[in-house]
Amino acid sequence: MNDLVKKLYRDKALSKSEFTELINSGDSVRKELRALAEKLRIENYGNDIYIRGLIEFTNYCKQNCLYCGIRRDNKSCRRYRLSFDEIMSCCDEGYRLGFRTFVLQGGEDPYFTDERICEIVTAVKKKYPDCALTLSIGEKPKESYQRYFDCGADRYLLRHETADAEHYGKLHPESQKLENRIKCLYSLKEIGYQVGCGFMVGSPYQTAENLAEDLLFIKALNPQMVGIGPFIHHNETEFKDFPDGTLEQTLLMLSIIRVMLPKVLLPATTALATIHPKGRELGIKAGANVVMPNLSPVSVRKDYQLYDNKVCTGEESAECKNCLQRRVESIGCKIVVARGDSKNSGK
Prior knowledge:
Elements: H1 3-11, H2 16-23, H3 27-45, E1 48-51, E2 53-58, H4 84-97, E3 101-106, H5 114-127, E4 132-136, H6 142-151, E5 155-157, H7 165-171, H8 178-191, E6 194-201, H9 208-221, E7 225-230, H10 247-260, H11 270-275, H12 279-285, E8 290-291, H13 298-301, H14 317-329, E9 334-336
Parallel strand pairs: 1-8, 1-9, 2-3, 3-4, 4-5, 5-6, 6-7
Helix pairs in contact: 2-9, 3-10, 5-6, 6-8
């Protein structure tokens, strides 16, 4: 076994220079990492793959992240908001199909006040007390996070995007600061959420040293979930001419994270499936153990376009779930009906 792989497996940590060297490694080391990551996934979660029902309930956003298709200044984006009844209908359909985690994801939409979010969270948890509810609605004051938690929200996803402040500044307008994003993540942990962070692989101006910083930050935060996927450009953003992130680099980062945090929940993302027809399967083989099919109404899915050419925008929820089930079974795994809580305590 490669010395750095051995050290990561044994100590669960490397220095920045060591992580950088590992990220720049060749095919033989990458194969070692993938095999070790799959072994650790099986040791901790067996061949169970957890499904999350993704409900993209608003594509309005007050933020202006330079890479994002639903950014405030994209005037060609057709905006929508799901009503309370439409959100509940998505949950009803998802529960019938065997989903036991719902993920409410949206832009930072001022219409959805704390009162409205709390109304939705309370209703979902009352109707489906055996389900976990994840929110992914961006940066909020700690008091807001506390209110959602007190109403029953279990988990919160907030990608940090990059742990390097200079790089963060190249991806966001001046008004957005990495310092606040990190403060939000630690506030969520303090409140008691199961927390997820993450980043784009191959984002504009990203270096191997940036990725090493991401790994050091993730190790320090010790989240329950890590969501990573390849950067994919959107034609209505400033980064429309930048190359997309690669399959190989994304699989490498998935494997490193699994070895570093063996009990973490690690999705094989839609973005990974978008850049390769078997992206999700390859992600699972590289250490991932979560997939997130879309429960949003088909009529709005193409409007939640964070990047170009997103897959599965035209499939009904049942069709999408059945397709995923077949794909997962083709590599010896199985989708399970469970909340699928993280085995990483986060402490």
